[in-house]
């Protein structure tokens, strides 16, 4: 009876521990010195303790997993959002650095993001009808030219900081030029209106003078016609 119960316990222990490796415990005495009954009882007790400990471990792992699973979606969302912010910040930083480097090297960009031509007249100032100053950009350099009967180089600006400052001031000039053009147009319009008024007044005065002359000539003719008639009477 005892042997059958020991065999049944050993069978249950082998089925229960098929998925996991059994924990090897050093025996207190060499196997040859132990009795068969004591060996079977010892193995049965160890198997029972191991089988009793497994549900506790599984219940603990099952209790821990829902908590980790419940907090995992929030953590993954935060990680995804942080990664997206990092990518956007990197793009903005690279764009800003490219613009700074381009301006430092004297490279101008148009409104569409395209590069300006290699040679460009950025500013012009008229001294007289035959003398003009031109500021020309040649790559990263600015060249000041005197244009007249001949073209002469007055100065070459190679300092990138000074070139960037001058280019920034030139970019603000179109608004000032537009205001100056509007003021000049208003002055010309006013002068043209005054000239038209003067011409109309002179025309009216000339018309009155011609009318007076015609009237005087007509009265003189009438007098000459009446004079012979009076003399004959």
Structural account:
Helix 1 (2-16) runs parallel beside helix 2 (36-104). Among the domains are: 2-20 and 33-70; 119-218, no CATH class. The chain has a four-stranded antiparallel sheet, covered by helices on one side. It is α+β, with helices and mostly antiparallel strands and 233 residues long. The protein has helices at 2-16, 36-104, 160-232; strands at residues 119-126, 132-138, 141-147, 151-157. Strand 1 (119-126) and strand 2 (132-138) form a beta hairpin. The chain is elongated and about 175 Å long. It has three helices and four strands; from the N terminus they run ααββββα.
**Backbone structural class:** alpha+beta
Cα Rg: 55 Å
Segments where pLDDT lies below 50 for 5+ residues?
18-23, 29-37, 66-70
What separation lies between the terminal Cα atoms? 192 Å
Instruction: Provide mean pLDDT, rounded.
Output: 67
- The SSE string, one letter per element, is HHEEEEH
Largest sheet: 4 strands, antiparallel
What is the β-strand count? Answer: 4
What topology, given as strand order, has the largest sheet? 1-2-3-4
Strand residues, percent = 5-15%
Global geometry? elongated
Q: State the helical fraction.
A: 55-70%
User: How many alpha or pi helices?
Assistant: 3
Summary of the model, kept short:
It is built from three helices and four strands; from the N terminus they run ααββββα. It has 233 residues and is an alpha+beta fold. β1 and β2 form a beta hairpin.
